[in-house]
Amino acid sequence: MNQIKEVTPQEVENKLEENEEFTIIDVREDEEVAEGMIPGARHIKLGDIPQSVDQLPKDESYVMVCRSGRRSMNASEFMKEKGFTDVSNMEGGMLKWNGELVF
Q: Domain map of the chain by residue range?
């Protein structure tokens, strides 16, 4: 199994501030996302990932996010298996996020 790289919420915030090219995918459920998302994040529920990955470019950089980091790790592993090369998991999930939120 490929090792998934983990990034801290602070590293994700820094990447956003530096306008780095990457996509945040929030795999939480609708009611969790209603409590706030990282600005610019794309919402694809974990259960929708299998049928949604075909619409995502494999050569882009992705950071997967959930509430605590476990579901997003599962999504990261799935994407790696499907041929995505630059996938990271945000360690600790939204529980550790101190940055801005959009509703």
A: 5-96
Question: What's the sign of the alpha-carbon dihedral 73, 27, 88, 68?
Answer: negative
The domain defined by 5-96 carries CATH number 3.40.50.1970: no
Starting from the edge strand earliest in sequence, which strands make up the sheet with 5-7, in order?
A: 5-7, 86-90, 61-65, 23-26, 42-43
Q: Among 74, 78, 70, 63, which Cα is nearest to 5's?
A: 63
Query: What torsion, rounded to 10 degrees, do the Cα atoms 49, 31, 72, 103 define?
Result: 100
pLDDT digits (tens, 9 = 90+) for 59-68: 999 999 999 9
Average of per-residue pLDDT values in the chain: 95
Predicted TM-score (pTM) of this structure: 0.95
The residue annotated as part of the active site, out of 38, 41, 44, 66, is: 66
In this structure, what token pair is assigned to residue 29? Answer: 């459920």
Flag whether pLDDT at 1 surpasses 80.
no
Q: Are 90 and 28 in contact (CB under 8 A)?
A: no
Asked about 87 being catalytic, the answer comes back as: no
